[in-house]
UniProtKB/TrEMBL annotation:
Domain (Histidine kinase): residue spans on this chain: 1-151
One of the record's GO molecular function terms: kinase activity
Protein name, as recorded: histidine kinase
Highest taxon in the source lineage: Bacteria
From-to range in the entire protein, with total length: 265 to 418 of 418
Residues in the signal sequence: none
Keywords carried by this UniProt record: ATP-binding, Kinase, Membrane, Nucleotide-binding, Phosphoprotein, Transferase, Transmembrane, Transmembrane helix, Two-component regulatory system
Entry's localization field: Membrane
Length: 154
């Protein structure tokens, strides 16, 4: 269905605001208005729950999570970055694999199954998009999603 992508992202930010406040993390956004998009809104909501939940989970107090979205030609470009613990370079190729969790000793106490990012990738690809990750230990992590836009004919 058609929906406004900016509204979905603002809803996510609203839903995570109490958690961010509790953890003393600033959520910043840079989201273009009136971005009409055709896709599965519920699954895309789940995608951003996974990514923003991780961003907040792996970032400590006084950190930042930034969510941006803009139209770039015939695609939407969404970037979610955090100033958190980062992912070791050697783990980066595997983070989208099922059940993969970086640094088990660090993450075990946080719970989780390592399924989140494999589901995220599946949702993006079901929309014919791409998701990539860049990260630097101690500096933070950046997920970039590109989703092709459909022409609205009416
Ligand atoms: P958990 O996140 O607790 O491991 P999960 O099921 O949410 O469980 P995924 O979302 O698939 O797992 O993430 C896989 C692994 O990638 C995580 O265990 C974590 O090591 C790493 N990771 C994911 N997002 C981030 C991030 N924003 N910053 C640092 N590491 C991350």
């Amino acid at each position: 269905h058609w929906f406004f992508f900016d509204e979905l992202l603002r809803l996510i930010i609203e839903q995570f605001a109490p958690i961010a406040e509790m953890k003393d993390i600033l959520i910043e956004d840079n989201i273009e208005d009136k971005l009409q998009y055709f896709g599965d809104k519920n699954r895309l909501h789940q995608l951003f729950v996974i990514l923003v939940d991780n961003a907040l989970k792996y970032t400590s107090a006084k950190g930042r999570v930034n969510i941006s979205c803009k139209k770039e030609g015939s695609l939407l470009r969404i970037v979610i970055f955090d100033t958190g613990v980062g992912i070791p370079e050697s783990d980066l190729p595997f983070v989208f694999d099922r059940f993969y969790r970086s640094d088990k000793s660090r993450t075990r106490e946080e719970g989780g199954t390592g399924l989140g990012l494999s589901i995220a990738k599946w949702i993006v690809e079901a929309h014919r998009g791409h998701i990539t990750v860049e990260s630097k230990l101690v500096e933070g992590t950046r997920f970039t999603i590109k989703l092709p836009l459909k022409e609205r004919l009416n």
